[in-house]
Amino acid sequence: MNAYLRADGRKGIRNITLVCYLVECAHHVARKIVDKCDDDSVHLIGFSGCYPNDYALTQLSQLIQHPNVGAVVLVSLGCEGFNREALIEVAIKAKRPIETIVIQQSGGTLLATSLGIEAVKKVQAATPIIKVTLPLNELVVGTICGGSDGTSGISANPAVGFCFDLLLKDNATCIFEETGELIGCEQIMAERAVTVELGQAIERAVHKAENYYRVMGYGSFAPGNAEGGLTTQEEKSMGAYSKSGNSPISGLIKPGDIPPSSGLYLMDVVPDGDPLFGFPNISDNAEIVEMIASGAHIILFTTGRGSVVGSAISPVIKVCANPETYRNMSGDMDVNAGKILEENISISTVGDEIYQQVIAVKNGQQTKSEQLGHQEFILTYKQFVPTGPSCLPTR
Question: At what angle do helices 109-125 and 27-37 cross, to 10 degrees?
Answer without folding.
Answer: 50
